[in-house]
Structure formats: structure tokens, C-alpha cells
Amino acid sequence: MIDFRTDKFQGPLGLLLQLIESEQMDITEIALATIADQYVSYVETAENIDPEEIADFLVIAARLLYIKSKALLPYLQTEVEEDDLGDLERQLRMYKEFIEASLKVADLIGRGQMMFAPSFNKSGRRGEQPDIIFSPPLKLQATDLETTWRQLLARLKKIEKPLPEERLEIKISIDERISHIRALLADQLSLSFQRFLEKAQSRVEVIVNILAVLELAKQRELIFEQEELFSEIRVLKI
After folding, report:
1. How far apart are CA 15 and CA 109, in angstroms?
2. How far from 220 is each of 117, 180, 224, 227, CA to CA, in Å?
3. Which helix (H) or strand (E) holds 233?
4. CATH code, 174-237
5. What pLDDT, on a 0 to 100 scale, did the predictor assign at position 116?
6. Where are the domains of the chain?
7. Tell me: the pLDDT tens digits for 138-178?
8. d(CA 68, CA 36)
């Protein structure tokens, strides 16, 4: 809410109403037309004004106008006028609710949500999701359901996509390679380490073979022999 300025007052409109109702300020000294002009100028220049703010201003302004009219025309102080003021306040509150509802509807339309339905509980009140109950016709048979289900399946277009083909690599464990190396050294005293690796069919198998040979060397079951630098390495059984 903006601050209003007159010759006798400066501040928000709610404060002015409070001062007048507590008889700390005389309503006849306040130019309500000046306040109205200031608020109209504010509305014309401001952006994205809250509808609740407009409704609050109208309610307070109507109250101030009524108080000033009673001060200037004392004979209007009747129960009928009090009822009329209450009706005016209720209408302004209703106006605010309609403005807020219109903004919500505009937001739903902007997001493409054109349909929505309130949820009801068992007692018919909003808030909870209702229990889903299947109520088939009395003469419905299981064969009828099966026939309907098959008809629905027949209407669906079959979409078959070929599965991607992948080649599965042969998995070789270190224990298997250790057993294989032991079997080779059981028939011969030594073997060429390079030729042994060349028989591998994949990089994984090469790595597994190296790890198997190193494990046997760690267990002191074989040793490596090389006559000179960069020459062939041979694996010997101890």
C-alpha cells in the first residue's frame, strides 16, 4: 500500500482510518478526493498490482467516505446506512475473490491445463481421492471380459523392434589361466612367454595371462629366464 499525502496527513490509508476511528483526527479535515486522485495515478503507473491491494483500498476508502458523510450529514446515522455499508464491504470482498479466481484461471489457460476436476471423499466433500470401485453389470460374464480384452489387443498395432546384437566376450578367470599354465609346464620344462601371450584372443585375456604368470611366480612355482637384454623371456617350472 502506498503512502498518501494531504495537508493534514501523510502515511498509509489504513493508518488514517485508525486515527479517525479513534477520534485522533477529524475526518472533515481530510480531502478524500486528493487521496483518490493519488491512488488513481499510482494504479496508472504501477505494474502487476495485487488485486487484494485494490480491494483493501476500496474497502478502507468506502469506510472513510461513509464516516465523512455521517460527519457532514448527521441525519444519515441510521441502522439502514450501517447495513448498506456492510453490503458494500461484502461486495468489495467478493470482487477481490473474483479477481483472484480470474488470475488463477488465466494461469491454467496459459499452461494449457484446460480441464480439471475437484476431488471428493466418501462423504461427498472435497479434499480426498475417492475409492475406485468396479461395478460391472449384473449379467456380465468372465467370457465377455475375455472377448473384449482380445478385441482391444487386436486393435493395437504391433510394434516390434529388433534387439541390438552384441557379441559376448569369453570370460576367463585367473584361476583358469593358472591351471592352464601348470598343465603346459607339466608337459615341458619351459615355454616362451611371448608366444604364450600371442595365443590370447583379446586384450583381457592377455592381461589375465600376465596376472596368472605373476601369481605363479609369487607362489614360487616358476621363474623367468632371459639370456640378454630385450631377448626372449622364458618361463621355467621350479
Report:
1. 39
2. 79, 17, 11, 20
3. strand 233-237
4. 1.10.10.580
5. 55
6. 3-110, 174-237
7. 788 888 888 888 888 887 766 667 778 777 666 778 888 88
8. 14
